[in-house]
Amino acid sequence: MEPFEVYAVRYARVDRRPQENFIAADPHDGPMSMDYFVWAVVGPQRSFIVDTGFNQVAATRRRREFLRCPTDGLSRLGIEAKGVADVVITHMHYDHVGNHDLFPQATFHLQDREMAFVTGRHMCHDYFRGGFDVDNVTGMVREVFRGRVQFHDGAAELAPGFSLHWVGGHTAGLQVARVWTRRGWLVLASDASHYYANMEQGRPFPFVYHLGDTLEAFGALRRLAASPRHIIPGHDPLVMARYPAPKPELQGIVARLDVEPKDA
């Protein structure tokens, strides 16, 4: 089994407070910013993009600092969006499924439960639908009718050394990616754990569909990964601090994740 290279591509950020990032946070804690990523899983035979981020329009509407289009970060790795064959959508929140139209040749990999969730009765509630962009949802429905969505029900191996695993919790159909790398099994947690501290301290991110599944997902991440330090959270700025850029000019833009972290 050939190992994959794995990269985190940072494209946006926002300043936040701890009470926005943890259930029952201490309101006296200092500021805690959030980064936004897409991920590239690059193999000798087949490669995958994990999530597609959001665009400047969404950033302005939601008051996020937009650093670059995610496809620009990918192109700096030599990956052109128009030629990507496989895109994993971990879940359909606005910051994970925007820009899908920039991948015109891709098959999108999505959990059955996520599509049912975003087109069903839960979207009648402001609490749930606030994290979604209706144009992204209807856009993905159109991709279904174009034959470009591959649905999965639970775990699925897409290639030797690359598999998807439903964990739920944050949304009904949240899935994570397990990747074989030169340092062992790596897990791209996406929003199963926004920050290292969510899973390490057992304190979930406040926006949840099912709190019990969110807590159970922390254990699933540990079982899937070679060790806790092989789990990559979905939004933590520490990812950029712990992992090196693949080359100096990509410092602050791309981090290589299939190497040992600096705090190891």
Overview of this structure, please?
This protein is α/β, with parallel strands linked by helices. The chain has one domain: Metallo-beta-lactamase, Chain A (4-Layer Sandwich), CATH 3.60.15.10. 25% of the residues lie in helices and 25% in strands. It contains nine helices and 13 strands. It has helices at residues 56-62, 70-75, 94-97, 112-118, 126-129, 134-145, 196-201, 211-224, 238-242; strands spanning 5-14, 34-42, 48-50, 65-66, 86-88, 107-111, 149-152, 156-159, 162-166, 175-181, 184-190, 231-233, 254-256. Strands 1, 2, 3, 4, 5, 6, 7 and 13 form an eight-stranded mixed β-sheet that branches. The longest helix has 14 residues, at 211-224. It starts with a strand and ends in an 8-residue tail after the last strand. The relative contact order is 0.17.
Average per-residue pLDDT, rounded, comes to 95
- CATH top-level class: Alpha Beta
Largest sheet: 8 strands, mixed
What percent of residues adopt helix (DSSP H or I)? 10-25%
Number of domains: 1
Oligomer: single chain
CATH topology: Metallo-beta-lactamase, Chain A
Q: How far apart are the termini? A: 25 Å
Number of strands: 13
SSE succession: EEEHEHEHEHHHEEEEEHHEHE
The fraction of residues assigned to DSSP E strands is: 15-25%
